[in-house]
Write a sequence for this structure.
C-alpha cells in the first residue's frame, strides 16, 4: 500500500489554523455539498485582488480534483495510473476524486475497478478496501460523504465506450458502507434488474461530486446520469412520439422505475427511495451513437441531460415562504430546485433562457456552489455553441460562469471565460467571491464578485484547470493539468504537475 501513498495520494502539512471550521472534507466541502467556505472572512470582494502565490508544490502529474483539508493538512490525488497488486487486480488503476476525511482515515473510490479504499490519514496504511460492483467497466468517480461512522457513495462506469454489440448491462447504484470495516450495509439500484441481458435498461450512473445529507429528514440526496440502453417497448414508444404531429409530453416514454437523469432522496438508514423526480425525459446515449445517423442506435432525442453533480442543500424564501431546497445543475445547462420534503419542483431555469448551452461534457458539470443567496454554476460549453451572456445580449463560444437568484432561478449575471476556453471545473464560493478555472492551455484561474460576476483577480497557472478550489483561512488551493480521459485528445488541454496556494497578502 506504500506505493499507493507515494504515487497517488499526497498529504501536505500547510500553515492552516487547525480548526474544524476551516476544514474541507469532501468534494462539496461538507455534507451540505454547497462548495461554500462559509467561515471565510479574510477573502472578500475587497481583498481578492491581493491574492498572491504563497507556494507551489510539484506533485508530478495532473491534479483534477479539489484538495481536501483537515487539521492543517491538505490531501490530494494526482492523476497517475498505479499498481496496487496484490490488493487489486488488474494492476493499473487510478483515482481522480477528492479523498474524504473520515475521522482518522481517508476514504476514496477508484476509477476502475470499482473499489472503495480506506487508508490511515497519518501514514497511508491500508485499513480496508471493498469492491462495489464487479462489472468490468464499473468505477467510482464520486467523492462520497462520511457521516456518523458511515460512508455513502455511488457507482458509475465507462461502459458507454464499448461497441454497439457489447452495450450495455451496467446499472448505477448508491451504497452505504461501514466506515470501520468497509462492509456494504445497503445498496439501491437506479434501474430495474436486467439479469445481465442487453437491450433492456442499463446506465443511470451516480457519478458526480458528493451526496448531501439532510439530518432532520434523514435523507441523502443524489442525482443520476443518462441511460445507455432501454427496453424495446420504450424505444418503440419514443419512435411513435417522434412521429407525432400533435403536442406530447417528453415524459410519455419514461417508466416509473427508470431513475436516469433524476434527483432522488434516499432514506439514510435503509436506502429506500423516499421520493424522486425524473428531469431528463427519454435520454439514451453511448459513444458509438455520437453519429446519430447510425441505424443501430436507439431513436433520439439524445438530450445529454446527465446530472454530473449531486444536489446542494439550501434554505431560502420563495414568495415569502421559507423553503428547504435541493438544487442541482444538469449537463443540459438547466438548473433545478426541488422541495426537500417531497421532490416537487419549486423552480427551474427552463422558465428562463437556460443558464447556458449543454454539451457532451456540459453544460453544468462536476459541481455548482451556493451561499444560499445565489446559486452559481460553470457552463463548460464543450460543444462550442453560442452562449448568450444574460442579462446582456453578448455571445461567446467559450465557457463561462452564471449566478442565479436562489429564490426563483432567475439569471443575475453571466461571465465568459476571457480566453475563450471551456469551463469544465466546479466552482467555489467564499465570502462574496466566486473561484473558477479555465481549460485553456495556460490554465487561468479567476476570482469573481459573486454579486455581479465581475472578474476581480486572475492568475495563469501554466496548464489546464479541470478541478476546483478548496478555501481555508484566507487561502485558496488549486491543482492544474488535464491531459487524460476526455482531455487526452483535445489539443487545447495541457498537462500539469503542480498544486498552488494563493493567500491574501
Amino acid at each position: 500500500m506504500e506505493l499507493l501513498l507515494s504515487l497517488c495520494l499526497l498529504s501536505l502539512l500547510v500553515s492552516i489554523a487547525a480548526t474544524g471550521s476551516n476544514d474541507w472534507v469532501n468534494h462539496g466541502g461538507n455534507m451540505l455539498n454547497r462548495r461554500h467556505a462559509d467561515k471565510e472572512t479574510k477573502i472578500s470582494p475587497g481583498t481578492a485582488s491581493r491574492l498572491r502565490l504563497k507556494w507551489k508544490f510539484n506533485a508530478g502529474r495532473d491534479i483534477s480534483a479539489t484538495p481536501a483539508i483537515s487539521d492543517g493538512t491538505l490531501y490530494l490525488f494526482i492523476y497517475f495510473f498505479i499498481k496496487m497488486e496484490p490488493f487489486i487486480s488488474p494492476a493499473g488503476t487510478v483515482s481522480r476524486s477528492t479523498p474524504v476525511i473520515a475521522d482518522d482515515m481517508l476514504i476514496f473510490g477508484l476509477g476502475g475497478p470499482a473499489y472503495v479504499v480506506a487508508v490511515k490519514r497519518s501514514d497511508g496504511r491500508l485499513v480496508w478496501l471493498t469492491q462495489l460492483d464487479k462489472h468490468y467497466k464499473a468505477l467510482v468517480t464520486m467523492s462520497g460523504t462520511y457521516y456518523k461512522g458511515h460512508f455513502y457513495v455511488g457507482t458509475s462506469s465507462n461502459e458507454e465506450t464499448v461497441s454497439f454489440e457489447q452495450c450495455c448491462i451496467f446499472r448505477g447504484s448508491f451504497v452505504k458502507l461501514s466506515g470501520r470495516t468497509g462492509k456494504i450495509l445497503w445498496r439501491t439500484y437506479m434501474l430495474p434488474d436486467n439479469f445481465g441481458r442487453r437491450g433492456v435498461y442499463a446506465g443511470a450512473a451516480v457519478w458526480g461530486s458528493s451526496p448531501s445529507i439532510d439530518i432532520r429528514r434523514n435523507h441523502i440526496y443524489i442525482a443520476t446520469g443518462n441511460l445507455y440502453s432501454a427496453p424495446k417497448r420504450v424505444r418503440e414508444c419514443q419512435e411513435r412520439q417522434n412521429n407525432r404531429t400533435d403536442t406530447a409530453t417528453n415524459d410519455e416514454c419514461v417508466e416509473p422505475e427508470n431513475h436516469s437523469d433524476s434527483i432522488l432522496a434516499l432514506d439514510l438508514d435503509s436506502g429506500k427511495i423516499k421520493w424522486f423526480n425524473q428531469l431528463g425525459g427519454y435520454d439514451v446515449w453511448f459513444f458509438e451513437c455520437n453519429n446519430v445517423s447510425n441505424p443501430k442506435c436507439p431513436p433520439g432525442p439524445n438530450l445529454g441531460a446527465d446530472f454530473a453533480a449531486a444536489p446542494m442543500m439550501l434554505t431560502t424564501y420563495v414568495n415569502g415562504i421559507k423553503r428547504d431546497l435541493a438544487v442541482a445543475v444538469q449537463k443540459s445547462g438547466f438548473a433545478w430546485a426541488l422541495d426537500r420534503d417531497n421532490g416537487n419542483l419549486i423552480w427551474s431555469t427552463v422558465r428562463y433562457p437556460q443558464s447556458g448551452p449543454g454539451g457532451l461534457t456540459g453544460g453544468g458539470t462536476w459541481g455548482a456552489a451556493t451561499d444560499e443567496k445565489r446559486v452559481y454554476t460553470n457552463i463548460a460549453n464543450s460543444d462550442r455553441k453560442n452562449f448568450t451572456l444574460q442579462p446582456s445580449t453578448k455571445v461567446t463560444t467559450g465557457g463561462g460562469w452564471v449566478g442565479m437568484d436562489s429564490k426563483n432561478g432567475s439569471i443575475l449575471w453571466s461571465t465568459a471565460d476571457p480566453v475563450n476556453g471551456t469551463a469544465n471545473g466546479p466552482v467555489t464560493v467564499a465570502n462574496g467571491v466566486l473561484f473558477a478555472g479555465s481549460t485553456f492551455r495556460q490554465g487561468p484561474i479567476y476570482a469573481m464578485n459573486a454579486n455581479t460576476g465581475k472578474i476581480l483577480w486572475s492568475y495563469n497557472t501554466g496548464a489546464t484547470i479541470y478541478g476546483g478550489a478548496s478555501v481555508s483561512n484566507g487561502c485558496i488551493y488549486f491543482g492544474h493539468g488535464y491531459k487524460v480521459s476526455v482531455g487526452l485528445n483535445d489539443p487545447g488541454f495541457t498537462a500539469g504537475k503542480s498544486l498552488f496556494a494563493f493567500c491574501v497578502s
